[in-house]
Amino acid sequence: MSDQEKALAAKERGNAAFKARNFEDAIEAFSEAIKFDSTNHVLYSNRSAAFASQGDSHAALKDAEKCVELNPSWAKGYSRKATALDLVGRKADAIATLQKGLELDPQNQPMLQLLQRLQAEEAFSASRGNPFGDLSDPAIWQKAIANPQVASLLENAEVSAAVQNVMKNPQTLAQYMQDERVTAVLGTLMQAKQQIEKEKREAEYLERKKKEEAEAKKKEEEKAKQESERQLTEDEINALSDNDRCLYFKKQGNLRYKKKQLDEALEFYTKALEVDGKRVEVYNNIAAVYFEKKEYETCVEKCRKGIKVGREVFADFKLIAKAFARIGNAMMKLARYGEAVQAFEDSLTEDRVYDVEQKLKEAKKQKRIADEKAYVNPELGMQAKEEANALFKAGNFAAAMEKYNEAVKRDPTNHIHYSNRAACYTKLGEFPLGIADCDKAIELCPTFLKAYSRKAGIHIFMKEYHKALQCYENGLKVDENNQDMKDGIARVRAMVMSESHQQGDEQGKQQRAERAMNDPEIRNIMQDPIMRQVLNDIQTNPAAAQKHLANPDIMGKLQKLIDAGVIQVR
């Protein structure tokens, strides 16, 4: 390949990147082209446009000047140069450049429009008269005082007053010309103003450019759409190569599919396969049609056919992955979750796609739920419970646990199974698991008092007396006359008092208090400012303490701390 051909190839890549608004890639491609053809003025013109679109106005101007230097008779070069000059704030030079370009091409509409805009902006700027009049813009001052030196100077009342005076009466500037402080501030303000105006011009240019490119892209898309939607005559179709004829039928099928014209889409896809039966993507499209028609079995059949063909012709693994994923989707609709899991796993083996990974998780979840439902059999659950009870009575708690687990799986809505398993957990020393089963039993049957009593018993084993009391109190809310619940409360109260008065075992009491602080309710009571004051008054101010104890809410919290072992009663 010759240097000219390499330059042309790089130029075409640059043009494509520019149209796609990938300006960095465009600049890189045009720069490569210039290496192979450094005297081609068009390459500099194109790179200038890319630099301008990226916001690099100085680089854009440099390339535009090089373009004009290489070909002074090319009008478009002057347009590029004028655009860049405008971006760097040299409006007058931009107007002069455009006038030179129009001498070469008087009817050039883009240059005429740009000239009119620049002349209008110049006229407006000249009409303002006072060059310092608009320095009161807060944005200008904010940018200026970002300079520490300027911010320091403006703290001086004399300097600040002088600057304000010049802004109101520019003719007074001469009397401050010898004051370096005033001229420094005014100079910084003017620079800030120019910078803001430059940024505004660049933003406006980029916005115009973006709008123009969007409009051009829209026209191209509309043209391409019209062309793709046009149905060819039979003679035109026959004149196409097999590959182009297959692609034509596939595109026509896609258009019908998007419009939900599924039967017509199917006809075109079938014609495409008649031309080339090895097109995996067409099998995938046919499967998609049957999926939309809710004919999931046929959808799966077409996917499998496409996969088979794809393996034979070594098709792109992404197409194979897509077919497996669609099989998974169809199996989910058919509630065949095991097959869905397999299909999604096969898809991910071909290509890791996040969406398919999420679908696999959902399929596994649904399979687990379906398996659990299929396993449910209350009669077998009762049989497992009876076997577990016999083992429990014989003291074989490990074997009993296996049977209780079986009972729960067979009938997960039976509260008695959870309560029995809680008792077995207690024997095995698995107190937290026992409490969880009691909670589940209560959730399933809130009136099952045995679960409240069993849960309280576990808390007693753990010396969490305040929680045990709460369990019995909750039981009384279900049946306020239940003697077992009342006896349980009395028994726990006696334990609390006994431990409080018991001498020795200070370490055990300390450990119980520390465990109690892990309870959020106890921790909140201890962190309550009012309760902290109450506890302090109990130790230091008996009179105030008596008033606190008359408050039922405070008394209830104190009792909770005593029950938990945080406060010791002597």
TrEMBL record:
Look up keyword Cytoplasm and say if it applies. yes
Q: Which UniProt keywords apply?
A: Cytoplasm, Repeat, TPR repeat
SUPFAM superfamilies hit by this protein: TPR-like
Against Gene3D superfamilies, the record matches this protein to: 1.10.260.100, Tetratricopeptide repeat domain
Cytoplasm among keywords: yes
Q: Which Pfam families match?
A: STI1-HOP_DP (PF17830), TPR_1 (PF00515), TPR_11 (PF13414), TPR_16 (PF13432), TPR_8 (PF13181)
Residues annotated as transmembrane: none
Where it sits in the cell: the answer is: Cytoplasm
Locate the compositionally biased regions of type Basic and acidic residues. Answer: 210-233
Chain spans, region Disordered: 210-235
The domain of life for this entry's organism is: Eukaryota
Predominant location of this chain? cytoplasm
Q: What is this protein called?
A: STI1 domain-containing protein
Q: Which organism is it from?
A: Palpitomonas bilix
